[in-house]
Amino acid sequence: MSLSSSARRKVCIFAIQAFSVHSIPHKQRKGVDQKPLIWEDGKTTLRSVLKDVPNIPAESYGPRQRDSVRQSVFPNLNYTGLYYAILNMIDIVPTMQMKQIEIGEYVLKVLGCLVPFLEHDLLDSLPYTVASTLAIFPPTLHKDTIDLLCSNMLPMTLGYDGCFEPSYASESAAAIITMVLQHTDNGSFHSQILECFMSIKRDLIKDILSIVAYGPFTARAPAANLLFYYWPQLNPALTDRRGIHYKYTAWPPVLCQRQGCVNSGNCQAVKMCLNPALAIHSGDKPPPLYICSDCADELRKEHSEYITDILLPMSHVSTVCENKNCKSEDNLAICTCFSIECASYNGNRPIRYCEDCDNQRHKTQKGELHIYHRSIPDIWDCNMEVQRYLTDGIVSLLKEAQPIESKRLLEMGEEYQQTTAEEDQLQLIEDERKLLSRYGIWLLVELCTPRDDIPIEVLGRLLGMLFQWFDATAYLPDDNVGNALERLKNEYVCDWLDEVAKTHFEVIVSCLLPHPAEYARVGGFWDTLCSRTVQIKEGLNCFFCLVPYDVITFEIWDYVMPYWLEAIRTEVPSEDLHHLKVLLNKSFDMDLCPLPFGTDSDKMYHFISERFDDNSAYVQEQALQWLQILSTLDIYLPIHMLLSMFISGVQNMTELLKQQKTAEPQSTTEDPKPAQHQSIPRHSPEEECPPPLSPVKTHVIVEAFEIYDRETELVLPCYIMMLDLILKQLELQNFPKYLGLYNETSRQIMQLLSLMLGTPWDGTHICSDEQQANSCMFCQNTALWHQVTSQVMQNFCPLSQVKIPTKEIPRVDESKRMSATPTCMSRKGSMTSNDDPESTAEEREKEVPGFEMTNMPLHLQLYHSFLQELGTITDTDAAFALLTSMKYLILNGECLNYTVTQFPDYVKFSLSKYLIPNLWKLLKAKQSQLAYVAVPLMLHCLTLPTGSDIFWKLVEEDFTNEEWKIRFAAVEKVTVLARFLETDGLQNNQVIQTALAHAFCLLIGSVEDINAAVAQRATQYLETIKYAAIKCLCKCLEFQFDHVISDRIMILQRLHLMSNILKDQDILNWEFFLARFDALSLEAQIDLENSGEIACLTGYNDYNKLPGNGLVSKFVVLTDDVLFFF
Question: Where is there biased composition of kind Polar residues (predicted)?
Answer without folding.
Answer: 659-669, 818-834
